[in-house]
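Backbone-to-sequence.
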């Protein structure tokens, strides 16, 4: 159910103040320490950020997709590590349950995810399985009233902090592709679950990823999402449709922040006796960035509205994710360029955000996978005579 316009405006204003007053001033501290401060997480919990997308009956704010994207556009103005800590609960760490879970699974986990009491992680990628997600090798063998999981998941966002993992595993060894995959809910602390060391990354310090390893890990049959085998790949794809919209809004919000930064610097920095913002070649970088960020905003919000209307948004989400993640890379590069020498120096944020933004073109489906999804749908539509 959508919020009334005043409540939505108030929420967005509160988020903007939180980002400006509480998050952006702590970016350097988080980047240097590679830790997310406990008081920041506590404040995020109090504000309900972990439950933006979760229905009110499970303790969340129950925002529509469009409202959620409007919130994310603001929250993403801070360095991406801040968003990362609650974003898996809003997106890929909760949506498998929200979309395809049984009533019992929703009642058991969604309230704790919404409050931020536990962090949810999404475990699809494996050492040998990235873009070709349907060929995953982790197995889940039925044994009486339980399943026994074996395998390794790789680069799992928030895994070091997670209380709950949505794990895609193969229940049917005779089905090598997507149809043999099922989705499970695995709680942290289950015997047989272990974690690798946190990876050292190019950027986004303060956000953590590591391997998740299952060795004869036993879960009850009730841990199978939706209670139906063979649906796990489709669940993962539906989760990623939504996740890709989230990434697109994160890219757009960060681009808008960097445009503000480059403008502020351009107006302050004097060369040849005047602010560099007065030079047309610098203005071209402002203008290209602004037009591209506006296009990304329009794309993500239109896709969000289509999702709220109940339409299939697989292609629109891929278009938004592809365009926005490529766009934010260009804007991050121009932001460094406008800052000149200062743009290359650690003490300024342009350098950090340039590295942080690089991940967006890779996770939740590379640009090349988004291109594949978009083109496949175009061809299928044209073949079926459905393309206008
Ligand atoms: N929603 C619902 N169902 C979907 C779907 C979607 N968005 N996309 C695919 N499916 C269904 C298909 O309809 C098909 O169902 P049937 O078997 O009933 O026909 C099934 O899922 C398999 O789909 P498909 O044949 O397209 O699977 P492929 O193995 O060709 O893989 C890609 C498709 C490449 C798109 C997929 O593997 C993918 O998204 N890869 C990237 C993974 C990724 O983003 N990883 C990032 C890690 S998560 S942070």
């Amino acid at each position: 159910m959508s919020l009334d316009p005043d409540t939505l405006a108030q929420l967005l204003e509160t988020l903007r103040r939180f980002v400006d007053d509480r998050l952006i001033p702590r970016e350097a501290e988080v980047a240097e320490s590679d830790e997310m401060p406990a008081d920041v997480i506590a404040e995020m919990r109090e504000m309900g950020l972990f439950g933006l997308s979760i229905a009110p009956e499970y303790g969340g704010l129950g925002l529509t997709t469009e409202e959620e994207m409007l919130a994310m556009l603001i929250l993403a103005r801070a360095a991406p590590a801040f968003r990362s800590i609650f974003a898996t609960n809003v997106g890929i760490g909760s949506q498998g349950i929200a979309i395809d879970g049984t009533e019992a699974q929703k009642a058991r986990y969604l309230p704790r995810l919404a409050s931020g009491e536990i962090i949810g992680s999404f475990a699809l990628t494996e050492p040998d399985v990235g873009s070709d997600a349907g060929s995953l090798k982790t197995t889940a063998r039925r044994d009486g009233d339980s399943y026994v999981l074996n395998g390794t998941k790789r680069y799992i966002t928030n895994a070091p902090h997670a209380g709950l993992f949505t794990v895609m595993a193969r229940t049917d060894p005779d089905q090598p592709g997507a149809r043999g995959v099922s989705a499970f809910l695995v709680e942290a602390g289950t015997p047989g679950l272990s974690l690798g060391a946190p990876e050292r990354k190019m950027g986004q310090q303060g956000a953590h990823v590591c391997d998740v390893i299952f060795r004869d890990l036993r879960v009850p049959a009730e841990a199978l999402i939706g209670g139906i085998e063979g649906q796990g790949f489709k669940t993962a794809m539906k989760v990623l449709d939504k996740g890709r919209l989230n990434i697109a809004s994160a890219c757009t919000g960060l681009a808008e922040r960097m445009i503000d930064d480059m403008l502020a610097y351009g107006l302050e920095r004097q060369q040849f006796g005047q602010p560099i913002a007065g030079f047309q070649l610098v203005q071209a970088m402002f203008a290209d960035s602004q037009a591209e960020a506006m296009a990304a905003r329009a794309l993500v919000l239109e896709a969000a509205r289509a999702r709220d209307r109940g339409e299939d948004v697989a292609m629109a989400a891929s278009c938004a994710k592809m365009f926005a993640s490529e766009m934010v890379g260009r804007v991050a590069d121009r932001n460094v360029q406008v800052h000149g020498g200062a743009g290359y120096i650690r003490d300024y944020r342009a350098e950090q955000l340039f590295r942080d933004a690089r991940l967006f073109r890779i996770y939740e489906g590379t640009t090349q996978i988004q291109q594949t999804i978009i083109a496949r749908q175009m061809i299928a539509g044209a073949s079926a005579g459905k393309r206008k």
